[in-house]
Amino acid sequence: MGLMDGKVAIVTGAGRGIGRGEALELAREGARVVVNELDAEVGKLVVDEIAAAGGEAVLDTGDCSEDETARGLIATAVDSFGRLDALVNNAGILRDRTVAKMSTDEWDAVIKVHLRGHFLPTHHACTYWKDSGQQGRIVCTASTSGLLGNFGQTNYGAAKAGIAAFSTIVAMEMARYGVRCNAIAPAARTRMTEAAYGSFKDSAGDDSEDTFDFWHPDNVAPLVAYLCSEAAGDISGKVFGIQGDAVELYQPFTSVAVIQNHDTRFTPSGIAARVHELFDESGIAPQVENMMGKLRFTMTDRTTL
Length: 305
Fold this sequence. Notes:
This protein is of the alpha/beta class and 305 residues long. Helix content is 39%, strand content 14%. It has an 8-stranded mixed sheet, with helices on both faces. β2 (32-36), α2 and β3 form a beta-alpha-beta unit. The longest helix is centred in the middle third of the chain and has 29 residues, at 104-132. The radius of gyration is 21 Å and the shape is globular. Residues 200-207 have low confidence and may be disordered.
């Protein structure tokens, strides 16, 4: 018996890396899976692997950031398997560049794939659940680049921060319909993160190795399968970190210090005289910081873009 027995799940960007591992894990837990992947050949390999292991999957090769594809994903799940229980928004790209060098196309492409690619499948899935009366679960893919900020990734970081907020708001809006929505901030070695996590291996796993591969993308999948299942209960509106053998819980932006001016509007000079109190009380440095340096599990320096 698996956590997803009898359930149906969609995974976007499921042909490689983290998405591939998520699709395979959901299938192992009993889910029938819609594998969304632009590269048809790569996506078919995942479908075939699921089938070879005794599971059920169908391939969708559309762009999930386009409305027709997103609408079709939900239709494919329902037409193929009779229902939809979980949506995993995973598809993403990188176009790393410092803001002064970044082109408009590099900005637009990343924002479209990540933010629009999350909104459209979520919109159509939520419409289905709302209209059908069926409950559902959504997992969105944020990033520490958005939660903390990362050099050379204003486009990616802005999109991923937006996804964290998007996920939290969807959770609030859909709670009345029994839909739970959470986000993950994964860290793993994929084609997109090879520079950060070492030599890339697009393999089925490292089960034959004696040592645990902390950065293997398949390590992300168990948390996603759990959040897609009824075992996750009422957990919703949360952002989890996941890498290796570690699961973290992120706290949203929280006010940590305040100054007030006794029912009188501040003047600029008045703020200048007292702003130090905010930093003294909170312990936050006023100067620019390398926020990625505060990660529990570190990555390589990326300040040469």
